[in-house]
Write a structure and sequence with these properties.
Elements: H1 2-74, E1 119-123, H2 125-134, E2 140-143, H3 151-154, E3 158-160, E4 163-165, H4 167-172, E5 178-182, H5 193-210, E6 215-219, H6 226-231, H7 237-254, E7 257-259, H8 285-296
Parallel strand pairs: 1-2, 1-5, 5-6, 6-7
Antiparallel strand pairs: 3-4
Helix pairs in contact: 2-8, 5-7
């Protein structure tokens, strides 16, 4: 009986296992299928993403090549025709140094008289006497006794084309490449130096408007003799020195050429020698030639 009971119990367990295993097997199969599906999906996603990245990279390379080519064509240069960067010539040594307008025009090789063929001289009676005594018949002279930095715009003193014109109006109908200016001794009696330099600056600006390519020389004002400086009511060498400083600063600001031509005729103390002028102001012929020689050796070539 004991063995029979044992057999019955074992048979019942086997029957229970048979009833339990089928559902368990189904669940395991489903789990395996899910895992396999996940793995397949992940692999497919990676493949698609790699393909997309590759296409994007190609597109960017093509776009970069297109933009580069377009830029090269817009500048008229084809990249394939350029030499390697390391073989490009260094042209920095060929660039001229910038002119220092804060300094007077330096000494150079003397030019001939025909250098002034295309020049215009603007000035008062001092420049008027210079043109006559130096024999510069090949140049244009817009000069007048008592001319100032304001009357060059307003006073009709120049005969041009059958009419009387102001200096600046005459300049508008004149062919020229260079302008030499000396004005200021008559303005030393003005109460405000700022007015003088403002008006002078307007002359420079107007000349540039008339001919932007013109070379403009601002000549410093000659001193007067010691006697004149001591006795004249307003023409004083101290005032002339003040004006010359303002002129040099203006030349630097407006980038025109300042010539310290007073060096050619001044004495050691900075005044005009007594023998240089009959009246202590207007130069004799000998000193006009010194003036001319100084201009000939102080020129610029832009």
């Amino acid at each position: 009986m004991q063995y029979d009971d044992y057999d019955d119990v074992q048979a019942n367990k086997r029957q229970q296992r048979k009833e339990t295993w089928p559902p368990f097997r189904v669940l395991c199969s489903i789990a395996v299928a899910v895992v396999a599906a996940v793995i397949i999906f992940a692999a497919a996603y990676c493949i698609l993403q790699s393909f997309h990245d590759a296409k994007s990279s190609d597109a960017l390379q093509n776009e970069s090549h297109f933009v580069t080519e377009a830029n090269m064509m817009s500048t008229g240069v084809i990249e394939e025709n350029l030499p390697p960067k390391e073989s490009l010539p260094d042209t920095t040594a060929d660039v001229p140094t910038e002119y220092d307008y804060s300094k007077p025009v330096p000494l150079g090789e003397a030019v001939s008289d025909d250098f002034f063929d295309d020049a215009v001289f603007i000035g008062d009676s001092r420049t008027e006497g210079f043109i006559l005594n130096a024999g510069l018949s090949n140049t244009v002279s817009y000069t007048y006794k008592g001319l100032t930095v304001d009357t060059v715009f307003t006073k009709p003193v120049i005969h041009k084309n059958g009419a009387l014109l102001s200096v600046m109006d005459a300049l508008k109908v004149t062919d020229f490449a260079k302008v030499y200016i000396m004005l200021g001794v008559n303005e030393t009696g003005w109460p405000y130096s700022s007015v003088f330099i403002e008006k002078y600056g307007q002359i420079i600006d107007t000349i540039k408007e008339i001919n932007p390519k013109a070379i403009i020389y601002v000549q410093e004002i000659f001193p007067v003799s010691r006697e004149v400086s001591a006795t004249h009511s307003y023409v004083k060498n101290d005032k002339i020195c003040e004006f010359n400083y303002l002129l040099s600063e203006m030349a630097k600001e407006k980038q025109v050429y300042y010539i310290d031509v007073g060096t050619a005729v001044s004495a050691e103390d900075g005044s005009l020698p007594a023998e240089a002028a009959v009246d202590g102001i207007h130069l004799k012929r000998e000193y006009c030639l010194k003036w001319l020689d100084y201009l000939k050796t102080h020129t610029v070539v832009p």
